[in-house]
Design goal:
about 280 residues; alpha/beta; 6-stranded parallel beta sheet; globular; binds adenosine monophosphate
């Protein structure tokens, strides 16, 4: 497995593969890898000749009061996980300047699907995500890129960005990987105390209960939102938002048509902000 610490190196690697007519699948991450990330890497292997992964904790997607400095990091552990998952190349910029050169003043903004939900609660977050993913796409020059539905709004933002900017890259979204008890895997789960880890189950429990309600005939978005809220309340989690939206436009729904709705939740478990979502 190759490890590249500079943009120049990863771009040269990609160019050489492209000259040989070989295809590249790309999985961008912020590291502290878990099964959710690894599922994307394994899926990538079946879809292209070579798999590239990036590991970069992107400062521009964190708000001033967020967890940038304490975000968990473990490059050595991540590299061995990538090796086991059959990754061909890891791009782990040695310095922020590899992606944000001195004087950097250019940003990418997706105006509609970035609004509401996490976009409203974390101002500037998706501008940071869209900007870094554009830079990573330019550095790695992949044919396709894989993202998790765990970050559902992010996936919609990146699909819109790729379409709007005519980027010749296929965006693939893959299902959320969960712990056995239902908790969506996340690098941030490492912040949870044992008590919080138990209470964090309220997110998935609420979402699954709402899914069951839809299967049983419930069509009211307000009732589904209430189902999730009740679980958060029962576990003393502080709601950031609960929303039932159209699965592609992310606009709020009043009534759910099965197959077209998405239910999303963000909540604080202690000081840790967790997100999760399901299709309806
Ligand atoms: P992150 O390192 O949190 O920026 O995530 C990198 C990629 O992994 C993104 O495409 C995420 O959506 C995806 N991802 C994170 N957690 C999960 C999960 N539990 N299941 C599937 N994909 C995930």
């Amino acid at each position: 497995m190759e490890l590249f610490r500079t943009t120049r190196e990863v771009t040269a690697w990609s160019a050489s593969l492209r000259r040989q007519g070989r295809t590249i699948a790309f999985v961008p991450t912020m590291g502290y890898l878990h099964e959710g990330h690894l599922s994307l890497m394994r899926a990538a292997r079946g879809r292209a000749d070579q798999v590239a992964v990036s590991i970069f904790v992107n400062p521009t997607q964190f708000g001033p009061k967020e967890d940038l400095s304490r975000y968990p990091r473990d490059l050595d552990g991540d590299l061995s996980k990538c090796r086991s998952a059959g990754v061909d190349a890891v791009f782990a910029p040695a310095d922020e300047k590899e992606l944000y050169p001195t004087g950097a003043q250019t940003f990418v903004e997706v105006t509609q699907v970035s609004q509401g939900l996490c976009g409203e609660k974390r101002p500037g977050h998706f501008r940071g995500v869209a900007t870094v993913v554009t830079k990573l796409f330019n550095a790695v020059q992949p044919h396709l890129a894989l993202f998790g539905e765990k970050d559902y709004q992010q996936l919609q933002v990146l699909k819109a960005m790729t379409r709007d900017l005519l980027l010749p890259i296929e965006i693939v979204g893959l299902p959320t990987v969960r712990e056995r008890d239902g908790l969506a895997m996340s690098s941030r789960n490492a912040y949870l105390s044992p008590d919080e880890r138990g209470r964090a189950l309220a997110l998935s429990r609420g979402l699954f209960a709402a899914q069951k309600a839809v299967a049983a005939g419930e069509r009211s978005a307000a009732a589904l939102v209430q189902t999730v809220r009740a679980e958060l309340l029962a576990s003393s989690l502080r709601e950031d938002y609960v929303a039932c939206v159209d699965s592609s436009s992310l606009r709020p729904l009043d009534t759910v048509t099965p197959g077209s709705g998405r239910l999303l939740v963000a909540a604080f478990c202690g000081t840790t902000r967790l997100i999760d979502n399901v299709g309806l």
